[in-house]
Amino acid sequence: RTRSAMWTGLLTAPLLFASCGERAWPSWDMARHPIRVDTLQLPRFPRRPHVNGVSAASRVYGPLCAQDHFVLNAPLVEARRNHDCTIESDRYLINILGRNGRHVERRDLQTGATELFAVPGHDPAAHPLNDLNHIYGVRVQPLGDVASNSSFDAKSELWMVCGFHGDRINGEISSSYARVLDLRTMRVRLGPKLLRAGGACSALALEIDGPGTPEHICAFGGTDGAHNTGTFLKSVACYDRRRQVWHEPLGELPVACDHSNAILLPPSLCHPADPARVLLMNFRIRHYADERPEIWAIDLPVSATPRWYLFANETGTAEYLQPRDAAGVFTTASGRYVFNVGGVSYVMRDMPNGKRRRLSMKHSTVRVFDACARRWAPAGGDVGYGYFALQSCASSKLGLAFTCGGQPPDGSVSDKISDNSHNCIVHNLLGPSFG
After folding, report:
1. More exposed terminus of the chain, fewer Cβ within 10 Å: N or C?
2. What's the angle, vertex CA 302, arms to CA 376 and CA 332, rounded to 5?
3. pTM value?
4. Contact between residue 16 and residue 5 where contact means Cβ atoms under 8 Å apart
């Protein structure tokens, strides 16, 4: 991989938050639990203006609490994309499988230490358990787990209920079996056979049987078959972990789609009478084409006749309103603000030779959807280069979100074999463009 310029100096979380004043998260004791940022690595940013005319380089070199994004100096051991990530106990940043990722990679944000955990074994279709990309992880509390363990979050299982096998682009085939990562042991086990083989779905854990009951793992859409020629799914398949059966309580999606993001909004989010809602956004309805601006929703609990409806459909010429897929997503303010990192759009352009060519537009900006106003807005500034095939994860206690790996532009900091990024970009939720 290529190496970029280094900014020397040891920067720790107390320094990051000390000058941020009242905007620091009061619930997190940084003096007792510092987050080690270490030296920062500056990606090879394109030479172009950024938000408010300030270059990405000057943002990275500025005081940390006054900037929107910076980069962990220790890159991923395995450059990966089409993977997932999660944060455990507000301390461990965990990146999971993905294209060219054969391990689960855990970084201790306090010490900077990184560990790789092997994933041995095969599913009944003879696919290795570690060969899975285009995944969408869902965290739940293990069934029957009543013991209190302050070292781990209660939701210590991460379920992966869709994915593709194979690293070769357009040579992937959809998986027929789920995988489950135990975040306490860092071991991956075989999950149930899927109702339908699928990859590039989105997923949520939903209390289908009522509040306080064990969540069902629900997969939204995806592609059955080959990544570039398979059948887009309209189904919402939910796995009842107690009864160990699949069912479809949410009916069919309004459109068959893949590469989407699914968001769960809690009840009373904007008004006391608001029900809990599922939102589906950032999807496409054709292979490498037709990214859609619509945001579809369904209210919970579902009725005997489930009904999806159009929740928002804002369009316009501004970059932040351009529909996209394969984007990272995280939420703040109990789900009201849905932040969208990167993503890709495909457009057809007339070429000088008279032919039309499909071009990809990789987004470098962060945008936010206000679930109460039902509007998009630019937020979080510009990360410096466009990238997609990624996922983001956030910690409200740390005031940070992370987006690792993904596919960056050609010639940027990436693995020369896989063309995946090694970088972990940190989004400062206390930064000027996020506030």
Report:
1. C
2. 35
3. 0.85
4. no
Q: What are the tens digits of pLDDT across the range 201-223?
A: 999 999 999 999 999 999 999 99
Is 6-428 a CATH 3.40.190.10 domain? no
Contacts of 192 (CB under 8 A, 6+ apart): 177, 178, 239, 244, 246
Amino acid at 41: Q
Q: Are 202 and 171 in contact (CB under 8 A)?
A: no
CA atoms within 13 A on the CB side of 318: 9
Peptide bond into 43 cis (omega under 30): no
Q: For tokens 């599913």, name the residue.
A: 123
Distance in angstroms (rounded) separating the CA atoms of residues 78 and 167:
13
Q: Say if residues 105 and 134 touch (Cβ distance below 8 Å).
A: no
Q: How far apart are CA 38 and CA 61, in angstroms?
A: 14
